[in-house]
Write a structure and sequence with these properties.
By secondary structure, this protein is α+β, with helices and mostly antiparallel strands. It has two domains: 35 residues; 104 residues, Immunoglobulins (Immunoglobulin-like, Sandwich). 21% of the residues lie in helices and 46% in strands. A hairpin with a 2-residue loop joins strand 1 and strand 2. The longest helix has 32 residues.
């Protein structure tokens, strides 16, 4: 009786493992040929594409306490509407503001980034990560420059 129970558990484990591996393979195949959107799946070739005019803004030198602002202009060069779901910075001193409405193919928009230099003296490189339904699904823009201490 004991051997029958052990053999039964072994058979069930084998089949469950086989099903799990099959689902993982299907997910991998699906990931490589499509891009996730809020409306479901679409092929990578039809996905929106973010093309930035400049992905890096060198603000040069700023004085401690100034706010540096820049609009990262971009165009959706893909075939379907671009939906930006998030824009996040590496620290709280950098605040991105991104369009909430879909950007149609061929249309342009901007992501405004404001960097508060207060207590941030020295060379700075602030990264903003944009998450969207584009291919690739994440991109980055950069604010770089030097913050000098206030003269007394």
């Amino acid at each position: 009786m004991r051997k029958v129970i052990i053999a039964g558990f072994a058979a069930v484990s084998f089949f469950l493992n086989a099903c799990s591996n099959n689902n993982q393979e299907q997910a991998k195949q699906s990931d490589s040929s499509s891009v996730s959107t809020t409306d479901g799946e679409q092929s990578a070739e039809n996905a929106p594409v973010i093309k930035y005019e400049n992905d890096t803004y060198d603000f040069g030198k700023a004085t401690d306490g100034e706010k540096v602002a820049y609009d990262f202009k971009f165009t959706n060069t893909g075939k379907t509407p671009l939906i930006i779901s998030n824009a996040s910075a590496t620290c709280g001193c950098t605040v991105p503001d991104y369009p909430r409405e879909p950007i149609p193919p061929g249309a342009s928009a901007a992501i405004k980034v404001v960097f508060d230099t207060a207590n941030k003296t020295g060379m700075q490189r602030k990264v903003v990560t944009i998450t969207s339904n584009a291919n690739p699904s994440t991109s980055e823009v950069y604010l770089v420059g030097e913050v000098e201490a206030k003269s007394k």
